[in-house]
Amino acid sequence: MQILSIASEAFPLIKTGGLADVAGALPFALAEHACRVVTLLPGYPTVMRAIETAGADVEVLPLDTVLGAPARILAVDLAGLKLFVLDMPTLYDRLGGPYTDAGGHDFGDNWMRFAALSKAGAMIAQGAVPGFLPDIVHVHDWQAALTPVYLAASNRPRPKTVLTIHNLAFQGNYPSAIFPQLELPAATWSIEGVEYYGNVGYLKGGLHACDVVTTVSPTYAKEIVTEGSGMGLDGLLRGRGSRLVGIVNGIDTRVWDPASDPALAANYSARELKPRIHNKRALEGEFGLRRENGPILAVVSRLTWQKGLDLVAEVCDELVERGVRLVVVGSGEAMIEGTFQAAHSRHPDRVGVRIGYDEELSHRVQAGADAILIPSRFEPCGLTQLYGLRYGCIPVVAKVGGLADTVVDANYAAVSAEAATGVIFTPPDRASLLEAVDRTLGLYEEARVWRRMQAAAMKADVSWTKSARLYAGLYSDLMKE
């Protein structure tokens, strides 16, 4: 099967979060199921530099204009991925990240930048690239969600479309004034199209137009059809019925492998855990923590309310009182960042903070910390807990979304059966978080129990193997319709 994947980011070329990891890893897993994936990415400066640095063979394919701006497609194999890169310097050649400028503010023309990505994807899906005609178009999040809308509005034959929601909180809603510039038929300005409370809803339009909606865990698929978690789209999602499917994310176990990870001070495995202590000692040194045998708890995350990191920031003093050392890596809301930095000032040898994101550092934290805190208020899937499982860094998670689907709580039965892989708590509030930390500390003090939990966690299947099979089956079923 020929699959066109459309995403706004893909690891290792451009990454701000879990979407990039999925877009970068899933094509490799799908190859085992006779799926050839080509990924369409915007031509950000980092992507263009990677092409130039690699000296890769590039085929330049004219696309004339997209939404009135000059455009071309670069076909290239890079980092093991087959790529179509949308080269539109007027939209993508600028300083900053994929979505924000150097000051962290959203680009004012994001509506145009990602409408162009969707439009280009629809053009490719209908034969704009000679010799390539996909069987399935798989689009990710609001940035690519207009692709099914463009295809559904066309009178030409079109492939089946799958839209994956990675986080329903991000929907791509813009003022109605932009609609005339999207080059969509007037009929799409309707409740069955892109109109959403008087605005243009990119994700909302895609959810109507696509053939199947998937999201990144079965529990999250159940949550988002409820009024409390549907972010205003629960009615639409309920209406999709069996066309809404939850498939849990996996991780790239080639990149995330403690037995061979070059970022680590020492490699180790579930069978040979002893070398892991060297990573703990290295982490203490890197963050200036007091060297001792007590536990290190870690946070590697966007520092936001959604992730529940305000709760962790508020209880730093209580954690220190319990003998915990804390490592925090991430960036996000200024108030949460400041609260963690203040805790570091009060406890410089017990609370280590690194504002920003560093991919290799996140590997070292997972290998050196004893447990990873993920108290999310909602979590579509989460990849951090999967990395934790893979590295024997015990996840301490809220019972929401994919966290509930991927971690086995250390209750009496699970511990007795040596099946426990983490600690689950609910609700995601301060009291429950501290209670979960106390449970974690109690388990840590029982060395044999803790080692068995680490071994069970590291043996858990966090790969894409099963989920890629489910996606391939979904594609196959759509082609039969």
Protein topology:
Elements: E1 2-6, H1 18-31, E2 36-42, H2 45-54, E3 59-66, E4 69-78, E5 81-87, H3 89-92, H4 110-125, E6 136-140, H5 141-144, H6 146-152, E7 160-165, E8 173-175, E9 195-196, E10 199-201, H7 202-209, E11 212-215, H8 218-223, H9 234-239, E12 244-246, H10 276-287, E13 296-300, H11 309-314, H12 316-321, E14 325-330, H13 334-346, E15 351-355, H14 359-368, E16 371-374, H15 384-391, E17 394-398, H16 401-406, H17 412-416, E18 423-425, H18 430-445, H19 447-459, H20 465-480
Parallel strand pairs: 1-2, 1-6, 2-5, 6-7, 7-11, 11-12, 13-14, 13-16, 14-15, 16-17, 17-18
Antiparallel strand pairs: 3-4, 4-5, 8-10, 9-10
Protein name: Glycogen synthase
Binding site for ADP-alpha-D-glucose: 15
EC number: 2.4.1.21
**Helix fraction by DSSP (H/I, runs of at least 4):** 25-40%
Total number of helices: 20
Per CATH, the architecture of the largest domain is 3-Layer(aba) Sandwich
User: If you consult CATH, what is the topology of the largest domain?
Assistant: Rossmann fold
Classification by helices and strands:
alpha/beta
- Summarize the biggest pleated sheet: 9 strands, mixed
Rg of Cα set:
23 Å
Full CATH superfamily name of the largest domain: Glycogen Phosphorylase B
Count of distinct structural domains = 2
CATH class of the largest domain: Alpha Beta
Strand content: 15-25%
Spatial order of strands in the largest sheet: 3-4-5-2-1-6-7-11-12
Distance between the termini: 15 Å
User: What is the tally of beta strands?
Assistant: 18
Q: Mean of the pLDDT scores?
A: 97
Catalytic activity: [(1->4)-alpha-D-glucosyl](n) + ADP-alpha-D-glucose = [(1->4)-alpha-D-glucosyl](n+1) + ADP + H(+)
Protein name: Glycogen synthase
Family: Belongs to the glycosyltransferase 1 family. Bacterial/plant glycogen synthase subfamily.
EC number: 2.4.1.21
